[in-house]
Design goal:
Length: about 70
């Protein structure tokens, strides 16, 4: 869900096509290791409300700052 959110909200628009697979793999690892509470909330609520959206946006921005293809 988190990678689909990132993709559909334009967060991958500036990622080179050849780097998307690495982005996805690294992002899943980042979310599982550093932002598991956000993932748990999505599972619990079964929806992305405003609070979850804000948490996802922040998590994606944080990840992108450290991502290198």
């Amino acid at each position: 869900v988190s990678i689909l959110f990132a993709a559909t909200h334009g967060f991958l628009d500036d990622i080179a096509v050849e780097a998307v697979q690495k982005f996805e793999a690294d992002f899943h690892e980042f979310m599982a290791n550093s932002k598991s509470a956000v993932l748990d909330t999505i599972v619990e609520k079964q929806q992305i409300d405003d609070a979850v959206e804000a948490d996802l946006n922040a998590a994606i921005e944080e990840f992108k700052k450290g991502f290198s293809a």
